[in-house]
């Protein structure tokens, strides 16, 4: 989540009262009106004044607004009550104020009353940022232009934990299958944080890492529930303790590998790539992913240049050699890993053997500089594979 969005959410959470609305053409003076400034509807007047304005009179006060947690304006909150006017506005932001231009029409304006005459203001322009803010307070786009009701809002984190707890309650102190674990954690996260296929397509590397983190959270919560009785009772002997510890460690290792495969498969489905997981090649080998699939792989008339191989391993410093002979028709083997950083010597050996790394975009910088351009991000790998399927 963008840092500005996080700050805006925190501002609302700590405020006495908060308000949001989309910036209009009238606000920026683009309708030909002589009055620009943020319009505040009468139903939200308490954000600015202790008592409502009286028709027939104007009233105003000076307030301090810190914008984007970056700079301050000494602004004017005013009620226009004379003549035909009956409205509240915020004005006086100083020369060069960046949020009352034509380009700001459609942005989300957020104002929080912190204390006395101190306010905090935020303007969100990006669609994803606006959706993240709405998700945090259980809002929709048609619930703006009014005070934010924090008493009924539920944070995304609380929604996620609530979804996890509901799933755990159904398990009756047992572990789910790896596919159920992956699917449930992903569904809970997407629902809590408003993650859509559009967002995943825009940032597949980010989406994958978020899903992996969510599944780890859920798995840890299940472990605590399942093993709660074991860890609260002393073990009778050392062998029992060791066996118990090994059971936990083996389950964790097994889950981590399957987790990565499951979430990668979901990303590929969202991008509408043709692929087949765990299909059998020579000597009953089972590569993690063959694009477009087993039928094409075993069809000698199918152009092998259009075949793509992808293995997935959470770490690969030693285990990368396992994939070299998993698909003889495909010379270059792509390997997706969560490994952060490998030595130049190992990378050189990998590349000599035809292995090409794919890692989450933020991890690329952890590899030697001379290899960074040779490493695919998940987004880059998807683009590469999609070009083969056209």
From TrEMBL:
Residue ranges annotated for the Restriction endonuclease type II EcoRII N-terminal domain, each copy included: 16-133
Protein name: Restriction endonuclease
SUPFAM superfamilies given in the database record: DNA-binding pseudobarrel domain, Restriction endonuclease-like
Pfam family, one: EcoRII-N
Coiled coil regions in record: none
Organism domain of life: Bacteria
Cited InterPro entries: DNA-bd_pseudobarrel_sf (IPR015300), EcoRII_C_sf (IPR038365), Rest_endonuc_II_EcoRII_N (IPR023372), Restrct_endonuc-II-like (IPR011335), Restrct_endonuc_II_EcoRII_C (IPR015109)
Keywords from the named record: Endonuclease, Hydrolase, Nuclease
Ranges of residues in domain Restriction endonuclease type II EcoRII C-terminal: 219-382
One GO molecular-function entry: endonuclease activity
Keyword match Nuclease: yes
Signal sequence coordinates: none
